[in-house]
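#struct-help
A.M.: can someone run this one for me? Single chain, 608 residues.
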Amino acid sequence: MVDYDEVASFIQTEQTPKGTWIEGAVVSDSVADHSSLFQINPGARWYYEWESAATKAQRFTKHALRVYIFQRVQAQLRVVGLVSSSEFMVVSYRRAPSEVRAEREALEALRAVVSVQQVIPAETAPQSSDRIAATFERKSPLPGVRRVTGREELLWQNRKLWECQQQDAMTSSKQLAILYYFLGHVNASSHGSSLEQLGGVFRDQVARSRSVAVKAWGDVSEPLSWTFLEPLSQLKSETDSLNNGREMEKDDRDVLSRLVQICSSLAGWLALDSANLEIYRRFLRSYSAALLDKNRVRAGYAEAVTLMNKLVDRFTGWSEDPSASSSTSLSLLSEEIMTVVFKYDHLKPLRRVLLDLLSSNRMLGMHEFVAQLRAQYLLQHAYTMPSRHTLAWTNGTQVSAFDGAWAFNGRRSLVTPIQGSSASDVSLSCLLAFMRELARINIRPVDSQSLEIYSDFNICSVAAGKPNPNARSQAGMTLVLDSRQRFFSNFPSGVSSAVPLGGYNYGDYRGKLMSPSSFVVEIASWPLDGRCTKAALRWKFQIDSETSQSRGNLRTLVVKAVLEEGLLRMDDGNQAQSLQVVPFDLKHEAVEAWYPTYEMIGVYDRVG
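D.P.: on it. Structure tokens below:
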């Protein structure tokens, strides 16, 4: 059974060309011999949500038509027949002329509104919104467009016009998103050479930021080992899934591996390079004061996208890999990603995501950009304001066993999937986030129950100048260990917690100080879309400060963790809300049960 509204609301018409259903017509219906004749797609029209830039990639995709015959039963439809066509491929694609006309009419309407707005003199500003609305209402409304009035209409028109004027920024934001989603789908254990290159990028950045060898590591030439990921290689990998179908040719494997290497090295360089981090810090400081200026924020977003585009071009130009010559710009790189996604079957789950991304008409990453500007503004404001409290680490009033700089030891750490759980391999983007946030950290006491954790790869700091001993010069993660439900505003790297990681929202936590050398923290992460049943995550950490006699009484941090999954079912009253504003208790109550999926042991060596 299917809800009638789910089908009726998404039928393709001239007004809704992107509908997912095409309504057929009954040609004849014979009761005597129980037969019916239907005409499928009587309008001879089939709409694809494809941008022209993706057409090349679509030619690798096989399609099939499915014909459903429904019988209506009150508010539902019963499937009484289902026929599927044989597989086929599309040779060419042309957008429907009626849709082109509709887009042009909409753009002309927006231009007319803006031109009227510019003619209105300043002294008539209080009545300007009414005059603009009246002018717009005189034009014949487009069918299928939701009618809004007043300020909401003007805001929508202003945003759409700005987006139309910033097509280059919108295109580049989509191309950056393609890179992000691609690395979020590629399993790490299937691409060992890419892991080695990421380790090399990490090593180079540490060597640049640290001029002296670190005694605790022994071999400073290889500061990060991937040994802790070995248990994950036992899980079903991409290669295993390919063996169940057709074997991937060696040339195909080489092409995919080279592309993954380029993308992972690029992302690692963008996230970890010290020169790039300084560029990000300066850029955020220059625009943080404009947080409440809509035009300046928009200009900053467009400039940020342009900056990232230039950095990608700079990296591909610097790359020593001869195969990188085919990916010398962000646009070409994203096109190559689209090609492999629609060529290899094991990447099929990513196709729908990228098609939705390409067909969207919004500035991707705008929310995240504003969230980071807000974090930068709050840091700079707090730094310039006088404070009643002096941070404990500045005057030595508090000393804890966790103080100091710490480096993750991959050889002594381990990530183990729990047998029978839904555990899977980790993605390359997940490892990149770990490297940025937790591979090298500094821990400082705030008071007897609070700690601050900072990453060496920080993007949020105040400008160099007169120091303020009573304020923080960097944004990091603050943990209050008083057993109460709390919210952290920043990750250790200074990235705002309002920026999703891996498709999840973070921030909710509660921690408790168990002893002077041990504390526990529980962090919950929630899916971005709370309107459907999806898995939520709960991270349980126990952090102990220990002294290793076998290693010359060196101090170490031992992190024991369990990752749990639980199905999040929000009721109708909370579905319309963002999960970020739903109270902590209500979200936990919406999870019926938590199931462990991974066990982790992380060891950190003291640096210096």
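A.M.: thanks! Residues 294-318 form the longest helix (25 residues).
D.P.: also worth noting: The CA atoms of residues 115 and 132 lie 10 Å apart.
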